[in-house]
Write a structure and sequence with these properties.
With 51 residues, this protein is mainly alpha-helical. The protein has 1 helix and no strands. 0% of the residues are buried.
Length: 51
């Protein structure tokens, strides 16, 4: 699980670890389709010289 590598994620052995993993699995199950979670984002790119 990618979310476990975040600095704010509880570590294995932490009291909140199992609840966190369960919640993440539940969210993934709810919002994913065929095992894929679509995460649309928009980015702006500005090109130019900094003075």
């Amino acid at each position: 699980m990618r979310c476990l590598s975040s600095s704010y994620a509880p570590c294995k052995g932490d009291v909140a670890y199992n609840d966190y993993v369960s919640a993440m699995r539940e969210l993934f199950g709810k919002y994913s389709s065929d095992g894929v979670l679509d995460y649309p984002i928009q980015s702006k790119l500005f090109i130019g010289k900094i003075r």
